[in-house]
Amino acid sequence: MTDNDSLQSYLRxxxxxxxxxxxVPTVRQLMRxxxxxxxxxxxxxxxxxxxxxxxxxxxxxxxxxxGEGVQATEINAADDRAQKSVILLRRSANNLRGRxxxxxxxxxxxxxxxVTLEVGYSNPEHAREVLQTLPRFDACIVQNSFDTMPIDMIxxxxxxxxxxxxxxxxxxxxxxDAVGFEWGQSVEAAVERLVASGHDRIHYVTTxxxxxxxxxxxxxxxxxxxxxxxxxxxxxxxxxxxxxxxDYEEMAVSxxxxxxxxxxxxxxxxxxxxxxxxxxxxxxxxANVGLTVPSDLSVVLLGRTDLDPEAGGxxxxxxxxxxxxxxxxxxxxIERWRKPEDPFGLRLLPMTERPGPSLDEQGPPQ
Length: 366
Hints:
It is a single chain. By secondary structure, the protein is of the alpha/beta class. 41% of the residues lie in helices and 19% in strands. It has helices at 3-17, 27-34, 38-51, 77-82, 96-111, 124-132, 151-158, 184-196, 212-225, 248-262, 279-288, 308-311, 322-338; strands spanning 54-57, 61-64, 85-91, 115-121, 139-143, 164-167, 177-180, 201-207, 238-240, 269-274, 298-304, 316-320, 346-348, 352-354. Helix 5 (96-111) crosses helix 13 and helix 8 (184-196) packs parallel to helix 9.
């Protein structure tokens, strides 16, 4: 399918459900979103005008006709009703995990006959501006990484669609669905493994930025620290101010090194760290400050077990898989379409583990 065909298919799908008088996105926006020239966008719009699906008014813009022209086209009405339009709303600066999930979701939705449009935004205000230019669509998958979605941003999305799926753990009690992962179970599993392997001082590095999944991980860490047998082993969490991916590894290693200066001596120290995108880089940064893994320090990551760059072919990882995330979001979307009256809620993914030589599982030195 060419880019022209993708644009035409998307606008035709939206035209079937759009209300009469809803504005068609501007030529400039369609050029940007579909990577098309002005001439190609105008050619597609001309075709839709001839079919009666849109109408242009000088000085006002182009608007959907409310489906009045559908009967005059060669489009099969039943097929159009089956075809859905899905907006993939993402932060402009997304990470590897985000790109993998969105790309695979696009493939699955396209293979199922649905039309997708990926829309990037830089902040909530920009998201609201972008949404105002779009017609109604059948669903929105939101991938906002770790940032807060203000109430007015959620309201702007809900004005455009009845089906909203958040890619990531999200607060319950809203009329949206979410599929994600909480880090508490992985924190506890990693601590149990490290303690059983004889580690007598364990540090935990994560982000200071608030989001639900990470807060649950920190909450579990603090509960574990309150146990008498672990109070001297588990150190206060080290919180890095900046989220991945920019400079996060450097900041995490720097913060960890600073914490080591005040930490009690240990025969067998370990580091549990969240948010690493580049395992090879992390290993190099630790070596640069004189820490060889695992002879000087065992390291366990909290991350995605099926994204090779995170583990870097070396690190032991507790977390979840991107494949499970993709399946979870896609299946929840299809279920929501089939059963629109089902209760909304958060679905958590199962924990997985990826072994790696960064974890020294021998007992403490004698």
